[in-house]
């Protein structure tokens, strides 16, 4: 039986949504009190974002003005909000200047902690808003040198090609910005899934029946593979750790995801094996291969490409929150390539 190795090195958990973000975006976890206190309903029908926008920038619609409620706006009022004032306006409808808000703005009740988390989310909207300037999109370095270097390389390519709407991608060390680490976390599960799909399809088409795996989350992959009639036989890390002669040198076919790169890929190709690799970004792969960069750097490069694409798609008027969301939701086109 032919043995095939699948490498899934792009693993990571979805960025957990905070209770405040869930309330803001979907009205989860709270009750809305409307009609002057007469009616209590699940707040799911009254998500803040539904009226004030996902970016908290506000808007006017049908004769009603929905004010901007991101932190920069709230703290710039003549009678500025602080955290306690936001809690009060949400529970009682009374603004810091003593004004009682109209009935178009619901009142909210939530279990302890949820409102505080909502305030934290509003504070975050400020940072995201300021991440986007007229001529730049600020991205906060992750502190992981390889991830940052990969992102910077993709950003340079994006900027050389004119950026988007006159904006360049800029990697910064501090201040407001789209957090690269958060973006990486948010996008990882999607890439893993798209990649696994592409690989399983490729293996099926190649008539492969069993395979071993490198990295990743074995249970997930094994489960998904079983569903399409493939069997995970063992952990390929062990096999790769063996000396080439022991694991039977030439003629093997390895299946991998994204980043079977550098010394491993080179060695495998050199000993006469064939690699089939699923990639979300060919440019990232070519860049990493040419410069001998590792998979984390390739990941950073891929993220730079995705964020650049999101910036082009988003149009002139956008915010950090919207861009992050767009990058997270972009369809990932997986390319399956073979080496040599
Ligand atoms: C059904 C639409 C709607 C929903 C849902 C809604 N708001 Fe409002 N909100 C309004 C309107 C309209 C006003 C302006 C009311 C006024 O000035 O009388 C307002 C005002 C506010 C203000 C006061 C701003 C200021 O300038 O003083 C804050 C803060 C606020 N909303 C936060 C929230 C938050 C947080 C949520 C979600 C938990 C939310 N709103 C959900 C419609 C809505």
Automatic annotation (TrEMBL):
Molecular function in Gene Ontology: electron transfer activity; heme binding; metal ion binding
InterPro entries: Cyt_c-like_dom, Cyt_c-like_dom_sf
Domain Cytochrome c, first and last residues per copy: 15-207
Keyword set, alphabetical order: Heme, Iron, Metal-binding
Domain of life: Bacteria
Name used for this protein in its record: Cytochrome c domain-containing protein
Organism of provenance: Paracoccus halophilus
Lineage, top ranks: Bacteria, Pseudomonadati, Pseudomonadota, Alphaproteobacteria, Rhodobacterales
């Amino acid at each position: 039986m032919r043995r095939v190795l699948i490498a899934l090195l792009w693993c990571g958990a979805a960025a957990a949504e905070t209770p405040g973000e869930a309330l803001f975006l979907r009205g989860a976890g709270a009750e809305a009190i409307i009609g002057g206190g007469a009616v209590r309903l699940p707040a799911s029908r009254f998500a803040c974002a539904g009226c004030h926008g996902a970016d908290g920038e506000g808007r006017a619609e049908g004769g009603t003005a929905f004010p901007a409620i991101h932190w920069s706006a709230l703290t710039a009022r003549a009678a500025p909000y602080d955290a306690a004032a936001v809690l009060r306006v949400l529970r009682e409808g009374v603004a810091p200047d003593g004004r009682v808000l109209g009935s178009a703005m619901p009142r909210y009740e939530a279990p302890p902690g949820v409102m505080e988390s909502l305030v934290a989310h509003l504070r975050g909207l400020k940072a995201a808003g300021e991440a986007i300037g007229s001529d730049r999109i600020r991205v906060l370095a992750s502190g992981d040198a390889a991830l940052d270097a990969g992102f910077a390389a993709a950003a340079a390519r994006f900027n050389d090609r004119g950026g988007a709407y006159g904006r360049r991608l800029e990697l910064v060390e501090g201040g407001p910005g789209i957090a690269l680490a958060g973006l990486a976390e948010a996008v990882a599960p999607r890439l893993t899934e798209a990649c696994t799909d592409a690989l399983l399809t490729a293996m099926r088409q190649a008539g492969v029946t069993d395979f071993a795996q490198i990295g990743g989350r074995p249970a997930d992959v094994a489960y998904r593979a079983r569903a399409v009639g493939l069997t995970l036989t063992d952990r390929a890390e062990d096999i790769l750790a063996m000396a080439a002669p022991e694991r039977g040198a030439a003629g093997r076919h390895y299946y991998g995801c994204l980043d079977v790169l550098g010394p491993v890929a080179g060695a495998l190709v050199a000993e006469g094996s064939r690699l089939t690799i699923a990639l979300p970004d060919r440019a990232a792969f070519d860049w990493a291969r040419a410069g001998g960069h590792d998979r984390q750097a390739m990941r950073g490069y891929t993220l730079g490409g995705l964020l650049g694409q999101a910036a082009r798609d988003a149009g002139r008027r956008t915010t950090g929150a919207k861009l992050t969301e767009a990058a997270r939701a972009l369809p990932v086109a997986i390319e399956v390539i073979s080496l040599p």
